[in-house]
Amino acid sequence: MKKCESKSLGQLLDEFAQARAENLTELLGWSLQRKDLARCGRHPALGAVTLSELLATWVAHDLDHLHRISRTMAHHHREAVGPWSVYLGVLQFQAHGA
Q1: Which of 1, 18, 38, 59 has minimal CB crowding within 10 Å?
Q2: pLDDT tens-digit profile of 20-36?
Q3: Confidence check: pLDDT of 76 > 90
Q4: Nearest to 69 by CA among 2, 33, 17, 6
Q5: Which residues make Cβ contacts (< 8 Å) with residue 69, sequence separation at least 6?
Q6: pLDDT surpassing 90 at residue 9
Q7: Mean pLDDT across the chain
Q8: How far apart are CA 40 and CA 52, in angstroms?
Q9: Domain 8-91 CATH assignment equals 3.40.50.150
Q10: Beta bridge partners of 49
Q11: Contacts of 37 (CB under 8 A, 6+ apart)
Q12: What does the angle CA 16 – CA 18 – CA 24 come to, to the nearest 5 degrees?
């Protein structure tokens, strides 16, 4: 069993929020300036990337987690909403990245 499978949704959401709060505290501690966002690094597969791109990817990555969480939570109400399910996008299956 995966570690997360033995935890409640509330516990998992709390862990997600705690991890993000810790990461944001760390990031704020760097005291970045606008000019720092243009700094480049090298990714082994992507080549040159900027700090701005990396941070934007971090935001999108978190949003992807939140999207999946909302779909999982909504799935528990699929039967209860009855015929309205066709109007609720969160209940419509779409492959990730589609």
Answers
A1: 1
A2: 999 999 999 999 999 99
A3: no
A4: 17
A5: 13, 16
A6: no
A7: 89
A8: 9
A9: no
A10: 41
A11: 50, 51, 52, 55
A12: 100
Confidence of residue 68 (pLDDT cuts 50, 70, 90): confident
Tell me, letter by letter, the H, E, C secondary structure of the chain. CCHHHHCCHHHHHHHHHHHHHHHHHHHHHCCCCHHHHHCEEEECCCEEEEHHHHHHHHHHHHHHHHHHHHHHHHHCCCCCCHHHHHHCHHHCCCCCCC
- Which residue pairs, CB below 8 angstroms and at least 24 apart, start in 56-61? 58/23
* Both tokens assigned to 83: 């015929």
Whether residue 88 contacts residue 81, with contact meaning beta carbons closer than 8 Å, is answered with yes
